[in-house]
Amino acid sequence: MPKNDLSQALQQIHAKNIPLPPQRYALLEYLYAQDGYATVKDICEALIERYPHLQATTVYSSLLVFKRLGLVRELAWNNASPRYEAAICS
């Protein structure tokens, strides 16, 4: 299985001059460390200790930016919560 390439994702963000505050970086880092999909709830639970004021709306807006850049993939089916995974592999 190909390894997710966080460094390549970061290069794309910097090349497009997209702001990368600490919470957004942590979100991207989390997704690229996973072997599969994660929900927004999973992400919030994983990052809440580091960022106690992190809200789901912040995660959703960051995921939208990452999706538009092609850095994450969204999987949604029926009425289930969407799931996200890293889209760049080495």
UniProtKB/TrEMBL annotation:
Coiled-coil regions listed: none
SUPFAM superfamilies for the chain: Winged helix' DNA-binding domain
Signal peptide stretch: none
InterPro entries: FUR (IPR002481), WH-like_DNA-bd_sf (IPR036388), WH_DNA-bd_sf (IPR036390)
Protein name: Fur family transcriptional regulator
